[in-house]
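Form 7-S
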Amino acid sequence: MKFINKIAIPFTLLVSFAFSSVAQEIISEETPVKKDTVEPFKRKKIDGIIATVGEYIILDSDIDMEYVELSSQGISVENVSRCELLGKLMEDRLYAHQALQDSTIVVKDSEINNMMEERIGYMLGQIGSMEKMLKFYNKKNEEEFRSFFFDVLKQNKLSSEMRNKVVDEVEITPEEVRTFFKKIPKEDLPTFGAEMEVSQIVIEPKISQEEKQKVIDRLNEIRNDVLINGASFRTRAVLYSEDPGSRSSGGFYKMNRKTQFVKEFKEVAFSLNEGEISKPFETEFGYHIILVEKIRGQEVDLRHILLSPKVSDDALKEAKDKAQLVRQRIMDGELTFADAARTLSDEKETRANGGILLNPKTMDSKFELTKMDPALYGQVSNLKEKEVSVAILDEDQTGKKRYKLFMVTNRIDSHIADYATDYTKIKDLALKEKQFEAIGKWSNEKIMETYVKINGEYRNCQFMNNWMKK
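Output:
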């Protein structure tokens, strides 16, 4: 659609490195890029400042690193020019600069430090060692890398907060949605892919008290080994914890009272003193023990070990038999699928609304088939509308097993956009266009009141924004 086709380059900000290297560093030009108005680079070039936005600078090497980052995320850079990347990096600096001027945007150093520890822990798990990471980012030591990384994360956080503020202030009325839809030429109306709505019933196997006690006893053994024999809690977490999110980092988490952890976990974590190890306690994920390493006001550094009781074959069979019985009652007309979900399903997230699954990307009940989770698609793709699946054994990433019944409650074929049927999607498109326009207007206004300088051959670039202030 030409009305929303002014698409900027996609930039994933998982770690989002807008790198600022040391000026005058000698670098090699190895990344093949689209030719543009910037002169071709020599085999070797001197890295220097190519642009300044407010108090932020951009180096030539920043663009090279951005190519590396995009490529590592699987994003094609074949048709992305250096001018386009410079424009995006300047936008990021403009947001960050303006965030510093905005008293309503507060980014605490403690927040960035927490973020930095989490990211470094993740990267160490991927790269393997700090030495490899220092080599990759061309830093002399860990202190230099942490200082550099802190600045990068803070700038990115400021940038995202400022952009979010601009976008969040944009609202759209039903009349604006209608106007947006009407101005789209008939031949340019978007086509929405085939969708379906799915409901499920979850039957979990019952875990025996004996299996629970085995896990509690094992956690107590580990706890005593650390407290009495001086064993390493970190090593025990790496060896035994069943939490895939923290096992590789020795069970480490940094959290405050707003961090998204289950209630029971947070209550125990904030009840402990430094160096104290909790007794085993239960959450919906299994049984845990927690070691508190450091308390900084309302923030806690901790390590934990998670073990889950094993499900016996007999318990699994009982769960399957129950699921099959529920299915038969639905097929015999004794219960509707929705009523069975409300009264018999063990999944509290879907039980209250009759088992209806929500699309995690859109938070509505429709799943576009081409974007559907492959595992879910495989389970429901062959079901006819209103047909109840057989009991399907499901195992999540932690190894937890349960049986599921599925029903496709509605199928929507691929179709050209219809205002009444697709109002939510059309509203999203209209809002995105309005947000895009608001960002453009905001950027042009702020560029005029911000110190901006572009150096050398990059002054020949054709930017979307008026960086040259012509």
